[in-house]
Amino acid sequence: MSVASLRRWRRKTLRYRKERQCIDAWLSAVDRAFDISPDVALEVIKAQGLVKGYGDTHRRGLTSFNTLMQAFERYGEAPDAAIRLRQLHDAALADEKGETLKQSVGEWQPEAPAHTADDRSRIAVKQL
């Protein structure tokens, strides 16, 4: 029996189901990122490239990808989100153990968004 003949069973495997869930979550994140900015969306799209291979390579890539997605969920609307996500992506590729990525995530303190006139009026009302 050749490996190609097993292709029809792939959709029944646990790994396939997990990969589909991950892909669906990523596509949802891409949609949300486009609502924020095309640049942020591009970085979310490129993050999927971290996941490749099998075994340890796949696990490390998936861990890095999940770290980037968590950073997007937490800080995706920050003014510097696209730049920072690009830096995190580069950090994920910098070393196998992921230490550079962990350090970079720990250093990310997003810029506070500028308050609009409407925000300032709500703040003033709260202070009364």
In a nutshell, what does this entry contain?
Helix content is 69%, strand content 0%. The chain is mainly alpha-helical and 128 residues long.
N-to-C SSE string, H for helix and E for strand? HHHHHH
Number of domains: 1
In round numbers, the mean pLDDT is 84
Distance between the termini: 77 Å
The number of distinct β-strands equals 0
Helix/strand-derived class?
mainly alpha
- Spans of 5+ residues with little confidence (pLDDT < 50)? 120-128
Q: What is the gyration radius calculated from CA atoms?
A: 19 Å
Proportion of helical residues: 55-70%
Largest sheet: none
Proportion in β-strands: under 5%
The protein's oligomeric status is single chain
Number of helices: 6
Overall geometry comes to globular
Write the layout of secondary structure elements.
Elements: H1 14-36, H2 38-47, H3 55-75, H4 81-94, H5 99-107, H6 117-127
Helix pairs in contact: 1-2, 2-4, 3-4, 4-5
Features:
mainly alpha; 128 residues; disordered C terminus; 69% helix
